[in-house]
């Protein structure tokens, strides 16, 4: 029982720390696309860890629902990242000076040249 | 033999999904995985597993499927349970590594963080595989897929973090994900394609 | 164990405050969408921690519904932004 408590404590603290770092990244990163990285990955990991930490303290009947919450988050976070990222790129919210290379811009330029 | 025929058909139609209108029973059978998934969600939400819950779960599932008809999709997916577990473990491990890396970037670099948008051409040509690879990449270290070009099998991947050669690194990572995904759910032919492409990369 | 829960809740609260700062400062609609999504995820996480603390799982359906609604809301908002800006 004690080991279970220790495991739960590690998961809860790790998950909360992960969420906290994600929120810090949300504040410090320079543009939407980079902030999105901070938002999606650490939040997903943080939520899943917190879920595991809570689930071991519940009986099986309740814990099964937590699996569902974690699954939803893991499935939807990448989709959201892709959608918001694309919207950010199309509306010009990705700052070009932070990019080392931009193959998409090169391609768009190439296709514009061809149509002109 | 059947595999080859299906393979040929799917390559000819370039992943277009065929709705068989001739066999209504076949359509019903194809919906069964969806029904199983819905009943599973229902059971997890209720948290009880007695026959009554299952019965009402099936009832609600059939009702949902009947009232919101989604196009039945024919997949050319082969499940390999062991490889799928491997894929999930590497996804989970990558989630941990990526979180540590992004947190490090957030604290140390912050506003000076650099990024790159890299185009990666995938080896295989399938709707489902491309979607799964894109999802896997979007969950993995500091990257997400910004734009897909289905016709030319190109992913445009946004990658965070400064590196000497971001293009080569991102390309290697995405192709590694493709290899893992195809090994888990691809057909034998697709697995061969991926292995060949990987060996070509190494040489 | 009580200390663990206090620290966990404390960290989640600070994270929530930071995401609220981003939500208010914004700079763009997309920034705000991302910040709001993070905030809702934090609420879901805090709800689950609360369930672990009280050993009571009656709020699970609420957490699941919140997680899904956050996704649907953010997706539709992001699509709206994309369409609205491309008209310019």
TrEMBL record, chain A:
Spell out the family assignment given in the record's similarity comment: Belongs to the CPA3 antiporters (TC 2.A.63) subunit G family.
* Source species, domain of life: Bacteria
Is Manganese there in the keyword field? no
Q: What is this protein called?
A: Multicomponent Na+:H+ antiporter subunit G
Regions crossing the membrane: 6-30, 66-85
MF annotations from Gene Ontology: sodium:proton antiporter activity
Q: State the organism named in the record.
A: Actinopolyspora biskrensis
UniProt keyword annotation of GTP-binding present:
no
Record lineage: Bacteria, Bacillati, Actinomycetota, Actinomycetes, Actinopolysporales
Q: Could you list this entry's UniProt keywords, alphabetically sorted.
A: Membrane, Transmembrane, Transmembrane helix
Q: Which PANTHER family match?
A: ANTIPORTER SUBUNIT MNHG2-RELATED
From TrEMBL, chain B:
In terms of superkingdom, the source organism counts as Bacteria
Q: Which InterPro entries match?
A: Cation_antiport_E (IPR002758)
- Where is this protein primarily located? membrane
User: What are the recorded GO MF terms, alphabetically?
Assistant: monoatomic cation transmembrane transporter activity
Any one cellular component term from GO for this entry? Answer: plasma membrane
Q: Which residues cross the membrane?
A: 32-49, 55-74
How this chain sits in the membrane, per its record, is: Multi-pass membrane protein
Q: Give its localization.
A: Cell membrane
Q: Which UniProt keywords apply?
A: Cell membrane, Membrane, Transmembrane, Transmembrane helix
NCBIfam families attached to this UniProt entry = PRK08965.1-5
Homology family:
Belongs to the CPA3 antiporters (TC 2.A.63) subunit E family.
What is the name listed in the Swiss-Prot or TrEMBL entry for this protein?
Answer: Multicomponent Na+:H+ antiporter subunit E
Source species of the chain = Actinopolyspora biskrensis
TrEMBL record, chain C:
One CC-aspect GO term: plasma membrane
Taxonomic superkingdom: Bacteria
Q: How does it sit in the membrane?
A: Multi-pass membrane protein
Question: Where is it mostly found?
Answer: membrane
Write out the annotated subcellular location: Cell membrane
Keyword check for Cell membrane, yes or no: yes
Q: Give the transmembrane ranges.
A: 6-24, 33-54, 60-81
GO MF, one term, reads: sodium:proton antiporter activity
User: Is Transmembrane helix included in the keywords of this UniProt record?
Assistant: yes
**Alphabetized InterPro entries for the sequence:** MrpF/PhaF-like
- Any idea which UniProt keywords this protein has? Cell membrane, Membrane, Transmembrane, Transmembrane helix, Transport
Q: Which family does it belong to?
A: Belongs to the CPA3 antiporters (TC 2.A.63) subunit F family.
Kindly provide the name given to this protein in its UniProt entry.
Answer: Multicomponent Na+:H+ antiporter subunit F
């Amino acid at each position: 029982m004690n080991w279970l408590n220790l495991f739960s404590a590690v998961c809860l603290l790790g998950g909360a720390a992960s969420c906290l770092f994600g929120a810090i990244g949300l504040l410090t990163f320079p543009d939407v696309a980079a902030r999105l990285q901070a938002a999606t990955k650490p939040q997903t990991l943080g939520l899943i860890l917190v879920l595991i930490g809570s689930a071991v303290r519940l009986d099986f009947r309740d814990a099964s629902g937590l699996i569902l919450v974690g699954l939803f988050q893991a499935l939807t976070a990448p989709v959201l990242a892709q959608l918001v990222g694309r919207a950010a790129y199309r509306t010009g919210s990705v700052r070009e000076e932070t990019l080392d290379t931009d193959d998409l811009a090169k391609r768009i330029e190439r296709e514009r040249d061809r149509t002109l | 033999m059947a595999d080859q025929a299906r393979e040929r058909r799917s390559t000819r139609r370039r992943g277009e999904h065929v709705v068989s209108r001739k066999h209504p029973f076949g359509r019903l059978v194809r919906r069964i995985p969806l029904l199983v998934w819905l009943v599973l969600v229902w059971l997890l939400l209720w948290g009880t597993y007695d026959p009554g819950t299952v019965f009402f779960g099936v009832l609600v599932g059939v009702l949902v499927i009947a009232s919101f008809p989604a196009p039945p999709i024919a997949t050319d997916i082969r499940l390999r349970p062991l490889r799928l577990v491997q894929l999930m473990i590497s996804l989970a491990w990558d989630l941990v590594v990526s979180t540590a890396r992004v947190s490090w970037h957030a604290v140390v670099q912050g506003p000076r963080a650099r990024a790159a948008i890299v185009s990666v051409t995938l080896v295989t040509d399938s709707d489902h595989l491309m979607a799964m690879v894109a999802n896997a990449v979007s969950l993995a270290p500091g990257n997400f897929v910004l734009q897909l070009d289905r016709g030319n099998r190109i992913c445009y991947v946004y990658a965070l973090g400064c590196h000497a050669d971001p293009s080569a690194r991102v390309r290697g990572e995405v192709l590694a994900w493709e290899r893992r995904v195809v090994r888990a759910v691809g057909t034998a032919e697709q697995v061969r394609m991926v292995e060949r492409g990987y060996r070509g990369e190494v040489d | 164990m009580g200390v663990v829960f206090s620290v966990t809740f404390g960290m989640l609260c600070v994270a929530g405050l930071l995401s609220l700062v981003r939500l208010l400062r914004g700079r763009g609609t997309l920034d705000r969408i991302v910040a709001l999504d993070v905030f809702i995820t934090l609420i879901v996480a805090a709800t689950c921690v609360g369930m672990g603390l009280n050993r009571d799982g009656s709020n699970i359906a609420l957490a699941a519904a919140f997680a899904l609604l956050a996704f649907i809301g953010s997706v539709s908002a992001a699509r709206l932004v994309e369409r609205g800006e491309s008209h310019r």
